[in-house]
């Protein structure tokens, strides 16, 4: 980096700024600086006085789109496709402005060597919201550049050129995008064109099937664990089966004798068996004799007690009025309850797997990651390489739910590959996926409310105890310096939404001896369970209908109430809330808000052989502009099933210092036979999309708990919900 003057503008190398977008035309890469959206939010401010080059060398391309010889458009996505269907939604947005058929958009994962850098990563139900405008801007710019070049060649005005399916025409003139793209290397980037109004959309708002269905149902090797290369070796790491266990003694003699094992890697705390095939690697691992130094053999009860309101450091994250004073003044009018959610894991179908090849002057890793830019920096540091020497080739991921944002597993893969000197495929055993994971933290909630005359709620407080989630993914000193608390995830959703004059929320930061991290819907899941369960109990305590009570508590803030009222009223109508229930059925309701979206559910349950069975789920979602309603319905259905699993089954147990689950048979989850009738209602009427993947999960557990109470009279306040 060179500077003209410390107080004036700076010249950064192309690798030092986040290129907003670029387009490949006949081998020439044209940079396009669009509006300052989330992908380069930080560096956009830093780059105000920088001279960005218009033309970028093909040796260092940073691009979004490439025009291919068959006149299709290749879109290189910085966002991970992990089952949420984002490739389809992004293709629809690109096709709108490019004026091509949806089939003409091909979507692949970008790599870090020549793709757009994306420090935001994939998560938080943020992809469509963050890219809704940027991807259309870059696509529209590409379209206008091609039209301008065609107009120049044909000697006609740009306004007279029509485009359909990537073919431009004007009078007797006709050319494809690709033909024009290869006709020159001198391109002028226009001002960002005006975008289509929503009324002109051809694809957005219509049901579109997943564009990645075929490679998945035909078993194409598209996942990280599928990758194979010539001379590739397989490795599996030795990992402690104990919480906090450190390697004390090691004997690898028998492991080294296993047929197919080529090397036992020992590099500090890192021990791995490297073999010619997976079977030999796993067998070699089983032959290792290891003795572990275990600081404490935790038991379930004492582990749970670590997360308790009143322990650790407290941070006030909401404070309106004087709720504590009102509660103290009238103890006889105070209603108080406690709720708990357990330690859990992500349990995605594809175990962690990656391929790394570290050579003298370069390195490549194939991995399904939610944060390729962060991975690149961390892995390069782990193998003592320059960031520019490492290329991350992102693959599809077989589920993630926040787990694939952590780079530690991939860092070890790269270290092993560097030692071995050949491509190395490393995979977790299923037991390691459960016992050596990053976990959803357990939580404890205490809620209290002062009930006034006529059942009015005059004050409410929420105290939540939890270990961190998001701060586990960034350096602790940075996280606490900038955030002060884990507001983004652990504290996410802890504040009281309802229009109660006196209210507060306090976050108690606890520590656990295991690594906790982000899990789908982050803090919204436990907080919504606690708060909405408490609201349902308050409704019963005051003799009010739970849905009507929510409408009352939301009244007074019209900006909030307008959308919530529509969601709740639609839910009441579609679920038959005001209609009689069938015999043996309990009905419950809950609502949640996340990523600007509002999701509410009415759930009906039955009790069969003393087991809770979910019979019907009605979900209403206001997620802004619906890009692909079919994709949204699939997301809501998936979130609903994950919510049912979390409500009725999920939870890790600890005994003698170990996570007891070693595979799915010891970690119950909802099965296909547990799938209820699910009705999804999508509300429209907005000009931009909001988050979809996480919001519908939030209301499921509290709605089930309310339905169980409605049927049995039992209030269940600890997940997973059990009658005995």
TrEMBL record:
Transmembrane segments: 21-39
Keyword Iron in record: no
Coiled-coil positions: none
One Pfam family hit: MoCoBD_1
InterPro entries in the cross-refs: Ald_Oxase/Xan_DH_a/b, AldOxase/xan_DH_MoCoBD1, AldOxase/xan_DH_MoCoBD2, AldOxase/xan_DH_Mopterin-bd_sf, N-heterocyclic_Hydroxylase, OxRdtase_Mopterin-bd_su_IorB
Keyword rRNA-binding: no
Keywords: Membrane, Transmembrane, Transmembrane helix
Gene Ontology MF, one: oxidoreductase activity
Protein name: Xanthine dehydrogenase family protein molybdopterin-binding subunit
């Amino acid at each position: 980096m060179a500077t003209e003057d410390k107080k004036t503008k700076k010249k950064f190398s192309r690798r030092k700024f986040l290129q907003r977008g670029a387009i490949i035309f006949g081998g020439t890469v044209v940079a396009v600086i669009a509006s300052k959206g989330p992908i380069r939010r930080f560096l956009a401010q830093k780059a105000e006085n920088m001279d960005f080059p218009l033309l970028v060398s093909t040796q260092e391309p940073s691009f979004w789109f490439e025009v291919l010889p068959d006149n299709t458009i290749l879109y290189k996505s910085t966002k991970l496709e992990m089952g949420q269907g984002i490739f389809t939604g992004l293709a629809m947005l690109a096709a709108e402005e490019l004026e091509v058929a949806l089939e003409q958009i091909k979507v692949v994962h970008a790599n870090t060597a020549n793709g757009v850098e994306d420090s935001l990563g994939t998560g938080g139900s943020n992809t469509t919201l963050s890219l809704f405008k940027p991807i259309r801007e870059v696509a529209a710019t590409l379209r206008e550049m091609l039209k301008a070049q065609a107009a120049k060649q044909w000697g006609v005005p740009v306004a007279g050129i029509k485009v359909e399916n990537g073919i431009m025409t004007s009078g007797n003139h006709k050319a494809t995008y690709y033909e024009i793209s290869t006709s020159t290397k001198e391109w002028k980037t226009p001002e960002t064109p005006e975008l289509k109004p929503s009324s002109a959309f051809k694809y957005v708002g219509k049901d579109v099937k997943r564009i990645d269905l075929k490679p998945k149902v035909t078993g194409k090797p598209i996942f990280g664990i599928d990758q194979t290369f010539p001379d590739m070796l397989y490795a599996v790491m030795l990992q402690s089966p104990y919480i906090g266990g450190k390697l004390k003694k090691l004997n690898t003699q028998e492991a080294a004798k296993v047929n197919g094992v080529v090397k036992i890697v020992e590099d500090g705390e890192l021990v791995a068996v490297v073999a010619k095939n997976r079977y030999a690697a796993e067998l070699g691992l089983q032959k290792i004799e290891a003795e572990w130094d275990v600081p404490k053999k935790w038991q379930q009860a004492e582990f749970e007690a670590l997360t308790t309101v009143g322990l650790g450091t407290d941070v006030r994250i909401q404070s309106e009025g004087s709720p504590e004073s009102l509660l103290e003044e009238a103890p006889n009018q105070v209603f108080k309850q406690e709720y708990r959610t357990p330690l859990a894991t992500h349990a995605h179908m594809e175990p962690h797997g990656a391929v790394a090849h570290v050579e003298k002057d370069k390195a490549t890793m194939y991995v399904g990651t939610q944060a390729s830019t962060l991975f690149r920096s961390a892995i390069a540091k782990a193998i003592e390489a320059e960031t520019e020497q490492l290329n991350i080739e992102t693959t599809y991921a077989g589920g993630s739910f926040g787990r694939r944002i952590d780079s530690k597993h991939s860092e070890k893969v790269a270290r092993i590959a560097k030692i071995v000197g050949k491509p190395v495929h490393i995979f977790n055993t299923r037991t390691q996926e459960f016992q050596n994971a990053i976990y959803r933290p357990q939580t404890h909630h205490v809620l209290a409310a002062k009930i006034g005359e006529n059942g009015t709620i005059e004050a409410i407080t929420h105290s939540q105890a939890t270990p961190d989630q998001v701060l586990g993914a960034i350096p602790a000193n940075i996280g606490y310096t900038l955030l002060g608390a884990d507001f983004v995830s652990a504290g996410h959703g802890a504040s009281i939404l309802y229009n109660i004059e006196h209210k507060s929320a306090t976050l108690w930061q606890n520590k656990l001896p295991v690594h906790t991290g982000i899990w789908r819907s982050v803090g919204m899941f436990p907080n919504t369970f606690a708060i909405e369960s408490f609201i349902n109990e308050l409704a019963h305590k005051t003799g009010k209908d739970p849905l009507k009570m929510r409408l009352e508590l939301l009244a007074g803030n019209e900006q909030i109430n307008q959308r919530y009222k529509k969601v709740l009223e639609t839910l009441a109508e579609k679920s038959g809330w005001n209609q009689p229930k069938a015999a043996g059925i309990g009905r419950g309701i809950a609502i949640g808000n996340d990523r600007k979206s509002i999701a509410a559910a009415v759930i009906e349950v039955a009790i069969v052989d003393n087991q809770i069975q979910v019979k019907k789920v009605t979900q209403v979602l206001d997620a802004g502009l619906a890009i692909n309603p079919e994709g949204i319905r699939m997301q809501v259905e998936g979130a609903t099933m994950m919510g049912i699993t979390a409500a009725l089954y999920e939870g890790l147990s600890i005994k003698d210092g170990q996570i007891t689950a070693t595979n799915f048979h010891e970690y119950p989850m909802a099965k296909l036979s547990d799938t209820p009738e699910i009705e999804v209602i999508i509300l429209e009427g907005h000009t931009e999309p909001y988050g979809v993947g996480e919001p519908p999960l939030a209301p499921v557990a509290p709605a089930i708990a309310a339905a169980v109470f409605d049927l049995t009279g039992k209030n269940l306040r600890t997940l997973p919900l059990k009658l005995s």
